[in-house]
Amino acid sequence: MDYKAILENARASGRTLLTEVESKEVLAAAGIPITTTRLARSRDEAVAIAQDIGLPVVLKIASTDIVHKSDVGGVKLNLTTPEEVAAAYDDIVQAVRSQYPHASIDGVSVQTMARPGTEVILGMTKDPQFGPVLMFGLGGILVEVLKDVSFRIVPITRRDAQQMIREIKAFPVLQGYRSLAPADLDALENLLLKLSEFADHNPEVKELDLNPVFAYSSGAVAVDARIILESPQS
Ligand code: ADP
Ligand code: MG
Fold it and tell me: Is 86 helix (H, G, I), strand (E, B) or coil?
């Protein structure tokens, strides 16, 4: 589907939070590398999708009411058999229902279990004065506690992307550290450039998070994505 249609459908129904499945579909269409992700509406469908895309897989709650999926027991990693997939489907739905009885649940997303990489975060927010601003940082505690991130106003040039990556304090980690292979910096630059282009061409997008992206010695892939739209009246 044309990604504009997904954005328009959500806005027409008065929603501002896209699910991970919708967000990834939009971003994939915009040329951003994401893990193969499909929505299952039943346990059997989850098993069928898992067999189709290939085990091991990850299952996650798909709900427009839930922003932080792992906080509610909504993420199950590295499922290696159809039995594990079936059990994970039930566990996830039950965990969410018991904590949020009124949450609307689309189903559960089934996605390829990505091999481990260095976790980085890419994001876009809007500044009242400067408009869309891109953010880059290393995943986890470094961003949340140390605020070790870099920013640039959209649209960015390749030189901006290069600088964004190099100016975070944790940059040496991306150059290779102990058992960690050096990250593919070109792939990260390309991702930043694609994101800039996407933000520039889609003013209805208010906020965007790729958290995390796994950076590899060759390539990079987003395993989680979230898009928030401007509210229709704004
Ligand atoms: P949350 O909504 O809590 O941010 P995420 O989708 O980011 O949920 O999943 C939590 C963590 O699980 C991620 O930070 C990442 O380390 C891991 N993870 C998520 N999806 C995948 C995947 N497809 N392959 C491998 N690891 C994943
Ligand atoms: Mg996440």
Answer: helix
